[in-house]
Amino acid sequence: MTRERKTRRLVVGGDVFIWSVRHKHLPERSTDRECREVLGIRRDGQRGRLEVVFAAGPGHAAGDGCDSGQVGVVDGVWLNLHLPSVVRAVLDEAVERGWQADDPAAVHVDGWGLIEAVAARLDGRAGEQSAE
């Protein structure tokens, strides 16, 4: 099962990015459902897409046990993927690690590997982006 979310816009400099948050259960045809939150980002007009996946598991919370878009490390960092500031921090971290918005491929990234760096970016940022 996948619950789709409304796409939103994030303006970064002169670029417009389209993003959405989805909640997924995998495997989709099994009674044992693995919950995950997926943040999808792409530059407007480009085919390539960044998919940042936060899968629930030991020490990690995402999905049914949390509010939509809430992901976190037990006794650690929590993020709300519905906030434009969080999306901007994820985008900046992914670009710094080599993601290219003009690459036509879909790139899947484990969100847990980004969470600490994203939280550190958020600590020093206030109102640098606009969203619709």
From TrEMBL:
This protein's name: Uncharacterized protein
